[in-house]
From TrEMBL:
It comes from Dorcoceras hygrometricum. Pfam families: Sulfotransfer_1 (PF00685). This is Sulfotransferase. SUPFAM superfamilies: P-loop containing nucleoside triphosphate hydrolases (SSF52540). Keywords: Transferase. Belongs to the sulfotransferase 1 family.
Amino acid sequence: MVTVQIQGSLVQFDLLWPIIRCEKHLKARDTDIILATLPKSGTTWLKALTFSIVNRSRYPLGENPLLTSNPHALIPFLERNIYRDSEKTLTWISFRIRELFRLTSIISCFRVLSQNLNAVSYIYIGTPWIYSFSLWDFKNLISTRGSMSLDEFLEAYCEGTHDYGPFWEHVLGYWNAHLENPDHVLFLKYEDLKKDINFNVKVIAGFIGYPFSLEEEKTGVIDKIVKLCSFDKLKSLEVNKVGSMDASLKNKYFFRKG
């Protein structure tokens, strides 16, 4: 796969113009919510949790669209979906223009978003070692050009020549943005989410303007959201067993352990 550098980050060549369009045309509103993660750092989990938090008064848990749709279908990527081509961009904007909030995600480095700090953005990042193995496994699953050995991938990872790398530059971009503007950039760690998911769900909800009421806490709404969005629950759903995002990207690939 041919890669090019933009804003100090390496990206696949076919994403160059979508990223440029995103950087040039994205006009964020103060009610927008943008999830920022590197690939395979818990993105699917974060999307499921955030969608459920925001939409809990709109859909009873038993009717949550997560039961019939993959989290990536419910929260599109800016560069991979919305700005992929002009037709998709116009369709998304016209569909969302009257909604109070727009919930999207991005993989690119923070510099792509730096002109839109009025948007609510947050990132959580996994342990580099865990992230590297997870991404290597995922890339080999979806590759049409044969598998890459672990040694080859780790060499590229350590040299910062992997997709959206260098890793630490990507992380530092969002970390520094959080330090400079903590009201608009929430920085979470994957390990902290795993350690105390209920507490961090409350943190996320409060940060994006959808705090839980005392009544919701007493009636176990947080517990129900956490259970619905758990790895085992999402993996067990029919849509994530047989569905697909496109011809080469099956939904089940997002729910492999490791």
